[in-house]
Amino acid sequence: MKLKEIDRTAMQAWSPAQQHPIYLATGTSAQQLDATFSTSASLEIFELDLSDPSLDMKSCATFSSSHRYHKLIWGPHSMTSGERVSGVLIAGGENGNVILYDPAKIIGGDAEVIIAQKDKHTGPVRALDVNMFQTNLVASGANESEIYIWDLNNFATPMTPGVKTQPLEDISCIAWNRQVQHILASASPSGRATVWDLRKNEPIIKVSNHNNRMHCSGLAWHPDVATQMVLASEDDRLPVIQMWDLRFASSPLRVLESHTRGILAIAWSMADSDLLLSCGKDAKILCSNPNTGEVLYELPTNTQWCFDIQWCSRNPAVLSAASFDGRISVYSIMGGNMDGLRQKQVDQLSSSFGNLSPFGMGQPFQPQTAPQSVVLPLKKPPKWIQRPVGASFSFGGKLVTFENAKSQQQPGIEQQQQQRHHVYMSQVVTEKEFLARSNQLQEAVQSEGFVSYCQKKIDMAQADFEKNVWAFLKVNFEEDSRVKYLELLGYRKDDLRKKVNVPVSCACASTESDEFVPNEGKKVQATEEQFLGEKVKDCKQETEDLGSAEKTFSIPVSGDVDGLITQALLTGNFESAVDLCLHDNRMADAIILAIAGGQELLSRTQENYFAKTQSKITRLITAVVTKNWKEIVQSCDLQNWKEALAAVLTYASPDEFAALCDLLGNRLESKGDSLLQTQACLCYICAGNVEKLVACWTKAQDGNSPLSLQ
């Protein structure tokens, strides 16, 4: 698509690849007149600003020249990164003169911009090229087979590549080899091309077509293959591009016949050897693959011929074409839409008619809206956007890599067939222990051997926290998980039964004076057996006394508390009987009677009991009776987190179990204590909350270790 345009009838030259920003130099073309028949000439420099959506290019400087030009190139000689503009502009004039300009002085507005000039040639200088290996060497060609090699460091005396070719003829094209620095090629309108070896100072091969209709208008070396070059024919009877290989110079290697009329200019991309530009008298600008002959892209142009075409040195997707209608157009081969160009044409037409209709109706000019015009890009991606190499990791330590290997071009074989694309797959092992543990886990998952896997982790664990985590994880895959969680917390029913295995049918078991507290230290625990023995003797004595007593009892109906309770029971008034027992602080009798009185009376009695009784375990008993475990989890001392978790494991219903474990884990984690944070992990394991477990575990452990992450 078209990016920019300049209304000039001029030769053109892009700034070198090292130059930024990108500039385009234009010099008034020789032997061409514009519509004004002006005989003045100028040298201008424009800046390429692709961020500006308009088609106009910004003019940076204009230098009025006394010369018109047949050829213009911008060489990188003496370029320095510190200067905004550098290099040297080299122009071929009408009168055999080669002129060197300083682009920095032109942009700076200096009056003296010419570095040097020589009138050594005979006739106009139509051919110029800079040696890409030694940028101080410039080749020029003119009439009578004249070819000179100029040294920009010593411009006074040029050299010649050898004896002039016979018969004498004009030099229309000249080009340095892109691979071998001492090889130069020249061509003439007769269709003959000569290859020079500057070390031998003589021509080494001549290439010509036996068909006299081959009038050479363009010459270019292959960017990658040293022995290949192309020649373009200007003759309408033979509008072809011939590709030659000097190893087989008897006939062309390939002939491109995409144009219908003579070809005026060609340009081979240095960034992609599969892209060759050509413009001809059929008003076409084609981008072809010279290695296959396929047309990859046709630029949308008007009906005017283009006499010069060039690739941008810095941006490989940009090119410029100078046409005989007095316009230089800048294009992109990557496609786009033409709305900007159409809008400019509409604006120009509108301004020409003063915003009035061009059909004389006196109405304001309102252009019709055309459908969006989209220009497709190349048929194949250019090489500068292709990756030469690449790599990507996948699961399991697999590494996939690719490379686009360059192969030496063989004559007669298409490059697409020669180019090889290799994809490699390899196994990368950087953490051997990590990989071994991953394999063990994979085997456990496939065989469902989770219990044995966790047991191995427990046996290998060195820290208590790690052992506890794997022990709790192991329980997930076993039956009766809650019972086993309790055992891990230190609560075994069998052990507790042994501790409290005392007869409870004796009246002496409830005497307050003989109360035994098993949690008051080692000294009390040491006399436990003695205590139990004495209690058993007392129980036996009471049993004997009761057995010998008479098996009769009295029913008191006096006015005291016992009598009132008796009367309430005889009339079935359990509520009054319970109230009397509570008033007399006979809690056991009140509870027993409330059971007989129904659930409502029992609940109210329990509330009164808990309100009057205050001990260390009252709240626990309250939670057991009322099943309110959320309050225990929320308000318990976090140093007793094990007891709270044990209570939840014993009493919580399946619907509330996970939420209560989460709640306890959140309290432990938010406390900020590193030890409590590790215990929170165990709560999250019981809850089955993997997300919170991982987050909490990461805080408690080294989360950056590969083995820990595994």
UniProtKB/TrEMBL annotation:
One of its GO terms (biological process) is endoplasmic reticulum organization. Keywords: Cytoplasm, Cytoplasmic vesicle, Endoplasmic reticulum, ER-Golgi transport, Membrane, Protein transport, Repeat, Transport, WD repeat. InterPro entries: Sec16_Sec23-bd (IPR024298), SEC31-like (IPR040251), WD40/YVTN_repeat-like_dom_sf (IPR015943), WD40_repeat_dom_sf (IPR036322), WD40_rpt (IPR001680). Pfam families: TPR_Sec16 (PF12931), WD40 (PF00400). It comes from the Eukaryota. Residues 565-694 form the Sec16 Sec23-binding domain. Its main location: membrane. WD repeats lie at residues 118-160. It is a peripheral membrane protein. One of its GO terms (molecular function) is structural molecule activity. It is found in: Cytoplasmic vesicle, COPII-coated vesicle membrane; Endoplasmic reticulum membrane. GO terms for cellular component: COPII vesicle coat; endoplasmic reticulum exit site; endoplasmic reticulum membrane. Component of the coat protein complex II (COPII) which promotes the formation of transport vesicles from the endoplasmic reticulum (ER). The coat has two main functions, the physical deformation of the endoplasmic reticulum membrane into vesicles and the selection of cargo molecules. Belongs to the WD repeat SEC31 family. This is Protein transport protein Sec31A. The lineage of its organism: Eukaryota, Metazoa, Chordata, Craniata, Vertebrata. The gene is Sec31a.
